[in-house]
C-alpha cells in the first residue's frame, strides 16, 4: 500500500476524531470481524472456490481488513513495509523453495 493511501485512511479517521477509539484490542477485534465477513463471501459456495462473480464483494471486504490493519499498525507504531518484509524473510527460512515448492504442508512437516 502506498503512503498516499495510508494517509487517506489516517485522514479519514482523524477528520472524524476516531483515533480515541482505536486501541489495539478493539482494532484486533475489528480485523477479525472484517476477515470473517470476507470469509462469508465464500460460505456455501460449494466447489466454486474462486467466486469470480463475487469479486466486487471480495474487494470491499478485503479493503475493510486492510483499512483496519493500517489503523492497527499506526496505533502500535509499526511500519507495515518493515513488518511484512521481516515476516517474509522468516517465511523464506521456514519454507525454503527446495522443500516447499508445489506443497501446501506446514513448515514443520517439510
Task: Summarize the structure in words.
- It is built from five helices and no strands.
- The model has no long low-confidence stretch (mean pLDDT 93).
- 65% of the residues lie in helices and 0% in strands.
- By secondary structure, it is mainly α.
- It folds into two domains: 3-78, Orthogonal Bundle (Helix Hairpins), CATH 1.10.287; 80-110, no CATH class.
- The relative contact order is 0.11.
- It is globular, with a radius of gyration of 17 Å.
Question: Secondary-structure map with pairings?
Answer:
Blueprint: H1 3-15, H2 24-40, H3 55-76, H4 80-94, H5 97-100
Record keyword descriptors for this entry.
110 residues, mainly alpha, Helix Hairpins, 2 domains, 5 helices, globular
Short characterization:
This protein is mostly helical. The protein is built from five helices and no strands.
- Give the low-pLDDT segments: none
Q: If helices are DSSP runs of H or I spanning 4 or more residues, what is the number of helices?
A: 5
The first-to-last residue Cα distance is: 32 Å
- Report the CATH topology name of the largest domain: Helix Hairpins
**What is the name of the CATH architecture of the largest domain?**
Orthogonal Bundle
Q: How would the global form be characterised?
A: globular
Strand content: under 5%
**Cα Rg:** 17 Å
* Biggest sheet descriptor: none
Q: Could you say which structural class the secondary elements and strand pairing correspond to?
A: mainly alpha
The total domain count is 2
How many strand units? 0
CATH superfamily of the largest domain: MazG-like
Helix content: 55-70%
